[in-house]
Protein: UBC core domain-containing protein
Organism: Capitella teleta
Amino acid sequence: DNLQSITIQLRPNDGIFQGGRFDFLIKFADRYPEVAPKLNCLTNIYHPNINMEYKTDAEGNVCLSLFDDWSQARHGLEDVINSLLFLLNYPNLRDPWPTFISPSMSRRTFKKKVRQSLAG
């Protein structure tokens, strides 16, 4: 009843982020589940829909379309986690949030940069 936040770790088994470990902080508003939670990726990641410049931002740093049409009757924590997994497998390169990722970047170049970032 009084859950304010949880941290989860995702470790993709396949896809371009395979082998990575990504921590996410999910913060619940007082009015959750009426109001969508805020989501912050805590692990540095090269991703077009996660902006690490806002890593500690109160509004979150992960862009999920799920939050645009949030409805407590239809959405919950499981949907947030499934949406995160989907985002890791299918990043939206056409509408990047971080300014250093170009919407014209090829998927091949993006994959190369992701692999480089995962390697350190």
